[in-house]
Amino acid sequence: MSIIKTDNLTYVYSVGTPFEKTAIDNINLEIEEGELVGIIGHTGSGKSTLIQHFNGLLKPTSGKIFIDGKDIWESKASIRQARFTVGLVFQYPEHQIFEETVYKDIAFGPKNMGLSSDEIDQRVRETAFAVGISEDLLQKSPFELSGGQKRRVAIAGVMAMEPKILILDEPTAGLDPKGREKILNLIKAHHRRTGCTVIIVSHSMEDIARYANKILVMNKSKLFCYGDTAEVFKRADEISKMGLTVPQITRVINELKNRGINIEDEVYTVKYAKDVLLKYLSEKGGRAHD
Amino acid sequence: MIKDITLGQYFPGSSIIHRLDPRFKIIMTTIFIAMLFISNNLWGLLIGGVFALFTFVLSKIPFKLMLKSLKPLIPILIFTSIFNLLFIDGGDVYIEWEFIKITEDGVNMTVYMAIRIIFLIIGSSLLTYTTSPIALTDAIEYLLSPFKKLKMPVHEFAMMMTIALRFIPTLIEETDKIMSAQKARGADFESGKIMERIKALIPILVPLFISAFRRADDLALAMTCRCYRGGEGRTRLKQLKSGLKDYIAIVITLVFLLAIIVINILIQDL
Fold first, then answer.
1. A241 belongs to a structural domain
2. What would the pLDDT profile of A169-224 be if each residue is shown by its tens digit?
């Protein structure tokens, strides 16, 4: 059974005013449990609106949304349940930090879930460790930390709630390459460790290609396509036309193929490209020796 | 939703009222308010009402929007009405029971006051509905400029107001975002006792203040970088221009004012 299912999901902002705008239009989607999904699309394509529906922050104008097979808008209790099943990390999550200590801030979510203090303590320490925040930082004020550390604390705050589905909206925005790498790696590690479903919204095709196994492309409020990484990047031409870029390495490989070099065309990461090219060269070299 | 709050409630449009010079609109609103408070009989108020209705129809503002701006007024109306009814003494006594005494003057005052307050809000809402906040502050700066001679920092005052207005939507959006983020972490703002609800605001207010200070800092720096140094010798991108239609509008307003004054005198003579 799919963990997230949407049924003709539509959302219109500011209904009945001159500023009326359809943010997402008739989205039908099924996401299986345990996937690592990357969502890409332009600014204003409806990515953020879509993910805010997954945990019931926005109420669809029309259509339905099922989490774990249950309609989340069935009752008040089911919305609250959805908030705990689906952990949502917003853009620039460090802007929502408010507690006096790092420990208390990570504990905010678990506390709202009504867990025992032992359980909270265990979860805080575990997630802090998982995101690379050392013990001695826990009693510090979160406002003394560096930008990257703050971001990791904020993400830990949601991870500590141990949601079945973890959604991150642009988790690497505004970080340097090293910080990006760190965040993405810890998300990947979390995915592997807990087996939960992870959804990452990103602008960076490179990041998505490297980490996600499914890709969802949004274009002009509509679902453009949803499928395996390979399937989606096969439509590289259409995606480029939308103004989104496929990974640079994919472009390089595609161009090589166009020039008559016979190699595999489903290449999205530099590492894999290296393997493919080395294989090609050794085969070619081998033939030359014959 | 928090977005439904109409603050700086400009309603874009291109009606004749929208196109009037904001300076004239402010003066006309002031005259309109004066009309309401100098008329001491129902006929005068009726003329004020006709003026408001006339402007309202010309402005093409949806009726529903106007009703919405009147809604928060209901408690104030009830409150002032009760006070006027109970505490104004004079004329015939209609009801007397224990300490409650309702008199003719009291009833009159209640009706007048209620009508005045409603018209007052309609008039001032028309001004804010048809004038963008920026145009409004520009006009206020112009109208207050005589006070510059008294060393009043008029330009700085207007700039502060412009910035405040500019940041209202930004801060509302920010609040919305922070609320969503805390809700996603299971924060509950809608239930619980009053103390719990107040406590529930801390996760919103702390990040909001931090971001407001950060924004203020950034803005100050950006303004300094562009050599902002106050109002002296500063020119405008959008010059305020007045034309024939503005003079006609103000003459019409003055005619209404005059009519009310004349009626006041006539009724007193009767």
1. no
2. 999 988 888 888 899 999 999 999 999 999 999 888 888 888 888 999 999 889 99
Q: Residue A18 and residue B12: Cβ atoms within 8 Å?
A: yes
Ranges of each domain in chain B: 7-131+241-269, 155-225
Flag whether residue B12 sits within 8 Å of chain A, measured between CB atoms.
Answer: yes
Q: Per the domain annotation, does A113 fall within a domain?
A: yes
Instruction: Give the DSSP H/E element, type plus range, for residue A156.
Output: helix A147-159
Q: Report CB contact under 8 Å: B184, A83.
A: yes
pTM above 0.90, yes or no: no
Query: What's residue A287's pLDDT?
Result: 58
A150 and A12 share one domain: yes
Residue of A175, A200, A177 lying closest to A188 (CA atoms): A200
Does the residue A143 lie in any domain? yes
pLDDT digits (tens, 9 = 90+) for B212-268: 999 999 999 999 999 888 777 788 887 888 889 999 999 999 999 999 999 988 887
Length of chain B: 270
Residue of A nearest to B191 (CA): A76
- As to burial, measured by CB atoms within 10 angstroms (0-12 exposed, 13-18 middle, 19+ buried), residue A35 is buried
Q: Tell which residue, A275, A241, A168, A155, has the closest CA to residue A211.
A: A168
Of A52, A112, A143, the CB nearest to B186: A112
Residue A286: pLDDT band (50, 70, 90) is low
Q: Which domain holds residue A282?
A: 247-290
Give the Cα separation of A177 and A198 in Å (integer): 21
Residues of chain B with pLDDT under 70: 1-8, 270
Residue-wise pLDDT tens digits, A22-54: 889 999 999 999 999 999 988 888 898 999 999
**Is 0.90 exceeded by the ipTM?**
no
Per-window interface: B 167-226 vs A, CB < 8 A: 177-178, 180-188, 202-203, 206-207, 210-211
